[in-house]
């Protein structure tokens, strides 16, 4: 179930069921829920983007402590239950999030490193969030 669907059901007072015996559902990949209690920025990206040298440079420019950043895959994001941080950055395309969240999106960091205008667009999105 996607996060947006879970939030919708939660708002209606319907709780999401939990799988008690995941071994019975081998076809369904079980994703660990992220601890987002101290998270200021949730980054939905690939492993390559997480390890790219530009990632730390961007976080430094945003002045966000690396301990307050959580990384996840698209599958983890879609299956995440509970509250999300206000700021979410996707390097894998557009995501569906509630209007209460600010979504930054950019191309993959290998592409972003080569495209000056894409860097400017990401910076403008972040500046709009700060206002």
Short description, anyone?
This protein is 37% helix and 12% strand.
What order do the helices and strands come in, and which of them pair?
Blueprint: H1 3-11, E1 41-44, H2 47-51, H3 53-62, E2 69-72, H4 74-79, E3 87-90, E4 102-105, H5 109-112, H6 116-130
Parallel strand pairs: 1-2, 1-3, 3-4
Description:
With 131 residues, the chain is of the alpha/beta class. Helix content is 37%, strand content 12%.
Major pleated sheet: 4 strands, parallel
User: What class, by secondary structure content?
Assistant: alpha/beta
User: What Rg do the Cα atoms give?
Assistant: 16 Å
**What is the average per-residue confidence, as pLDDT, rounded to a whole number?**
85
| Low-confidence segments | none
* Biggest sheet: strand arrangement: 2-1-3-4
Total beta strands = 4
Could you say which overall geometry the principal axes of the C-alpha atoms support? globular
Helix content: 25-40%
Order of SSEs, N→C?
HEHHEHEEHH
Count the DSSP helices.
6
Strand content: 5-15%
User: How far from one another are the termini?
Assistant: 33 Å
Summarize this structure as a short list of keywords or feature phrases.
alpha/beta; 131 residues; 6 helices; four-stranded parallel beta sheet
